[in-house]
Amino acid sequence: MQTKPARVRILDAAHELMLTVGLARTTTKEIAKAADCSEAALYKYFANKEELFISVLSERLPKLTPLLSSLAAEPGRAGLEENLTEIARQAALFYEQSFPIAASLYAETQLKRRHDDVMREMGTGPHKPIEGLAAYLRAEQAAGRVSPDADAFAAASLLLGACAQRAFAYEAHAESRPPVGDFAARLARTLLTGLTG
């Protein structure tokens, strides 16, 4: 007898398969089988594999977007360095966990195009964290904690790009990947110099 609801089992199965097999090679049939439900039941909760992937990213990986939204809504809630460190930590973990899932998208042009179309329809995509972080930095500018001359979009791109690069650069040698806490703190301190100088 199943103890978890079908939607939870589907998300768990999809997350595991996408991590181990890759998004491109994971089928809805395999996900349904691993979730111990029918493929028709899967489609009751998710319109397609792309929607399921986006749900895995938003519900099974570190919560980057909600963190950025809450900080933008309440600038000054904690120290700027503390906030940037937490953003960098969450982003590094998010990219570290999502990179193995999403990497296979780039191997299949049609799948990537279909995935991009669904993300546009759902109003999401990889640009959203950059926009969210830039909005937070602009809120901090308005509060006087970030220099008015600082380029919020460029700073957001630098921080999140570094976090994505950490995942990409050390994928083959995860044992030499810089520890996330140290990496996040160093990145935040360095970025802070440019934002407040």
Task: Throw out a few tags for this protein.
197 residues, elongated, 0% strand, single chain, 10 helices, mainly alpha
Describe the protein's architecture and organization.
This protein has about 200 residues and is mainly α. Helices cover about 70% and strands about 0% of the residues. The chain has helices at about 5-20, 30-35, 40-45, 50-60, 65-75, 80-100, 110-120, 125-140, 150-170, 180-195. The mean pLDDT is about 85.
Number of helices: 10
Tell me, what's the shape? Answer: elongated
Distance between the termini: 60 Å
* Portion in helices: over 70%
Return Rg in Å: 19 Å
- The whole-number mean of residue pLDDT values reads 87
Could you give the count of β-strands?
Answer: 0
Low-confidence stretches: none
Percentage beta strand? under 5%
The SSE string, one letter per element, is HHHHHHHHHH
Class based on secondary structure composition and strand pairing: mainly alpha
Biggest sheet features: none
How would you briefly describe this protein structure?
The chain has 197 residues and is mostly helical. The protein has helices spanning 6-20, 28-34, 39-45, 49-60, 64-73, 80-102, 109-122, 127-142, 152-169, 180-196. Helix content is 71%, strand content 0%.
